[in-house]
Amino acid sequence: MSQASVLPAGFEALAPFVAFWAADTAAGRAHCRDTADEASRVAFYNAANELVPKALAYLDEKPLEQFDESEKRLMKLVLSFAHVAMAVELQREEEPRHARYRPYMRITRAPADL
Amino acid sequence: MTTQAAVPGSAPGEEELALGTGPIPAGPYYRPEYFELEREAIFRRTWLNIGHVCELPEAGSFIVRQLDFANASILITRGKDDVIRAFHNVCTHRGTQLTQETCGNRSTFTCPYHAWTFGNDGELRAAPDMQRFYVDRKDCGLPKVSVDVCAGLIFVNLDPSPGQSLHEYVGPFVEQWEMLPVARATTFSEYVYEIEANWKLTYDNFQENYHLRFIHPRSGGGGAVGPDNPFGYPVDYGFHGEHRTQTIWTNPAPKLSPAQMLAFGKLVPALMQRGLMNHPYGRAYYALFPNLFMIGTPTQPFVHFVMPISATRSRGVIRIYWVGDDMNASERYGREFSMAMARDVHSEDRAVIEAGQRGLSSGALEHIHLQQQEVLLRHLMYHVDAKVQAYQAERAGGAA
């Protein structure tokens, strides 16, 4: 699959992050945050930060159940941004220490998983 | 009764002072013999939240919940008559656990051992070669567990004849809870944790704000504390028999990160559209004895309970209850962020609670000290010990 079709038009800049960050479940997305190194977290955050509001505006135009595969991927990336933003904006240099605590809080369900 | 403080952290009221100001014995936070008493005096005879009606959406729906403190597995069903029932998950033939599933939809449950088959109303429907038994089939129904619902929350009570109905027990909170999102919830986010700590020590962490600025300076500090209230103390406390409340302080100038502003900017319109933003209990934080918290905050309406496993081990379940399926991408994002944010805070709590348990379990301290703004901890311990003492008196009376 070409990178152009991985995500909807206008969001190609996020294509390099799909393989790692577009996890299917909330627990999976939290795990991405837990296991990414700082450079990966910051690279994803910087690439997504300006695009997430645009992505939500784009995705809001369509019912969730009608998303095609590229739109589903974009949604998952946006949801992963929710997790990585906690690391980059709030935890900052404390993130490696904080990452040791979080896996004990096991996410077992989220509306986005259903 | 509510103790209204003019400003956060002001002097205690009459009811708080009545709880005393002395140090609290440390033993009940780690001694197995005290936990054994709590198990009998409290957990085996008190209404405990273990689920929500949205988990039983239709006739035949069932859930199974483990109550470790009682070594019990509880089967909760919704029958074709729409009635919610609860049973011990135990075949009445020779005690085999009836189902290993944790949820699903079934009208009958068949024991894997000898194929005794029970309806989801608990009645024994069929048993192979039943005529060779010396008991009537109608006397072999599943052992019933008391169950009821309040504000959508399913509670069970292992006392077959509870002294109070659930609604009597929840008392003054019932009407308020029915106005909260949880009463209309159709889905939820959930995370769970196991912790090497006593259930009270764990629970206590979540009913005092003294620790916020030290433990949550990043994840929660931006909104929970401020120059006018550097510890984030509540604006009032309420005492309602064994239960208690606090009203969370509203920070007039919370420092929110860009992602927090984006997420709540997406979530709030959806909540407004659903009519969930302006209920009167948005700053209420309820503590229902012995082990349940519920918060009215529309953007993070969570329920948190702490179930004991042993004297120094517990399990916590945190659910953020939502009304309706995600209506669009923005609401989905807002809900995911809300859970991630709450989980960051709770992750920090778990580590420090375990450190507290290690210290207490060493036996180095005979007492712990509680300040004025830790009065809810004192209130919990007061009522726990009252129950334990009443149980001991009851047992001594029975033995006399």
Question: Overview of this structure, please?
Answer:
The complex is a heterodimer of chains A (114) and B (400). Chain A has helices spanning 3-6, 18-21, 26-35, 38-49, 51-59, 69-91, 95-101; one strand at residues 106-109. Chain A is mostly helical. Chain A has one domain (3-113). In chain B, helix 2 (32-43) packs across helix 11 (375-399). Mean pLDDT of chain B is 94; it is low at 1-6. In chain B, the strands form 4 sheets. In chain B, strands 1-14-15-16-17-18-19-13 form an 8-stranded antiparallel beta sheet. Chain B has helices at 14-18, 32-43, 166-170, 173-177, 181-184, 199-205, 212-215, 221-224, 258-273, 329-361, 375-399, and strands at residues 2-4, 24-25, 48-52, 61-67, 72-78, 84-88, 103-105, 108-110, 117-119, 124-126, 144-150, 153-157, 187-195, 236-240, 243-247, 284-288, 292-295, 302-310, 313-322, 367-368. In chain B, strand 16 (284-288) and strand 17 (292-295) form a beta hairpin. Chain B folds into 2 domains: 2-45 and 172-399, Naphthalene 1,2-dioxygenase Alpha Subunit, Chain A, domain 1 (Alpha-Beta Complex); 48-161, Rieske [2Fe-2S] iron-sulphur domain (Rieske Iron-sulfur Protein, 3-layer Sandwich). Chain B is built from 11 helices and 20 strands. By secondary structure, chain B is α+β, with helices and mostly antiparallel strands. The interface between A and B is large, with 38 and 41 residues. Strand 1 (106-109) of chain A pairs antiparallel with strand 13 (187-195) of chain B, so a sheet runs across the interface.
Keywords:
heterodimer; A: mainly alpha; 7 helices; 4% strand; globular; B: alpha+beta; Naphthalene 1,2-dioxygenase Alpha Subunit, Chain A, domain 1; Rieske Iron-sulfur Protein; 11 helices; 30% helix; disordered N terminus
Q: What is the arithmetic mean of pLDDT of chain A?
A: 95
Under CATH at level 1, the class of the largest domain in chain B stands as Alpha Beta
Output mean pLDDT of chain B.
94
User: What is the radius of gyration of chain B?
Assistant: 23 Å
Q: Which stretches of chain A of 5+ consecutive residues score pLDDT under 50?
A: none
Approximate helicity band of chain B: 25-40%
Q: Shape of chain B, please?
A: globular
Helical region count of chain B? 11
Order of helices and strands of chain A, N to C? HHHHHHHE
Sum up the overall morphology of chain A in one term. Answer: globular
Calculate the terminal CA-CA distance of chain B, rounded to whole Å.
38 Å
**Biggest sheet of chain B, strands in spatial order?**
1-14-15-16-17-18-19-13
* Radius of gyration of chain A, CA atoms, in whole angstroms: 14 Å
Low confidence ranges of chain B: 1-6
CATH topology of the largest domain in chain B: Naphthalene 1,2-dioxygenase Alpha Subunit, Chain A, domain 1
Please summarize the sheet with the most strands of chain A: none
